[in-house]
Design a protein that fits this description.
The complex is a heterodimer of chains A (about 110) and B (about 110). By secondary structure, chain A is mostly beta strands. Chain A has strands at about 5, 10-15, 20-25, 30-40, 40-50, 55, 65, 75-80, 85-95, 100-105, 105-110. Classes of the chains: A mainly beta (about 110), B mainly beta (about 110).
């Protein structure tokens, strides 16, 4: 199993550009989440999904869209990037009633 | 409001010394509690978790944590720190294993 994979590892955007951060897992986990990590603030939940076709907002959803068309994939879209979205983004997955949430390696995004 | 507080931003210990990292939480229901470790440039690795039962839980790498409901605390301990333990440590709380609320983290530095 590859676990949770994220692409790209690094990305630089200009303000106003759009992009999609990719996340995939091969563990057949129902639950997937996106977090952002900022210095001195820990990780904060952006969006999460409890299954294909079902998504909901977390603590900091503004400026981000998600969709979940398959169990494996959970992409995060930035429609119009802003410098405030400079961060490290982590995708995570777990199974319903599972013992642990598994995290991907992260995507470091810089918006100039 | 639900929250996690890690009062120590940065801790420095000598190799071989004991360690205690503090975590206090505010949560309405019975929480699931976690400690994660993040090495520089890496993702998050689960050290240990508490769901129910014995309030002293053992984790990987020789770490343990004690859940104290009366104090709303879940402090992480290790009797003898190794240089490889230098990392950032995050306490987290959630209704299950997903949708976690993270603390702001404690950076551990280990001197030889």
């Amino acid at each position: 199993n590859a676990g949770v994979t994220q692409t790209p590892k690094f990305q630089v955007l200009k303000t106003g550009q759009s992009m999609t951060l990719q996340c995939a897992q091969d563990m057949n986990h129902e639950y997937m989440s996106w977090y952002r990590q900022d210095p001195g603030m820990g990780l904060r939940l952006i969006h999460y999904s409890v299954g294909a076709g079902i998504t909901d907002q977390g603590e900091v959803p503004n400026g981000y869209n998600v969709s979940r068309s398959t169990t494996e994939d959970f992409p995060l879209r930035l429609l119009s990037a802003a410098p405030s979205q400079t961060s490290v983004y982590f995708c995570a997955s777990t199974t319903k009633g599972g013992n642990e949430q598994y995290f991907g390696p992260g995507t470091r995004l810089t918006v100039t | 409001a639900q929250s996690v507080t890690q009062p120590d931003i940065h801790i420095t210990v000598s190799e071989g010394a004991s360690l205690e990292l503090r975590c206090n939480y505010s949560y309405g229901a019975t929480p699931y509690l976690f400690w994660y470790v993040q090495s520089p440039g890496q993702g998050l690795q689960l050290l240990l978790k508490y769901f129910s039962g014995d309030t002293l839980v053992q984790g990987i790498k020789g770490f343990e944590a004690e859940f104290k409901r009366s104090q709303s605390s879940f402090n992480l301990r290790k009797p003898s720190v190794h240089w490889s333990d230098a990392a950032e440590y995050f306490c987290a709380v959630g209704p299950y294993t997903d949708k976690l609320i993270f603390g702001t983290g404690t950076r551990l530095q280990v001197f030889p």
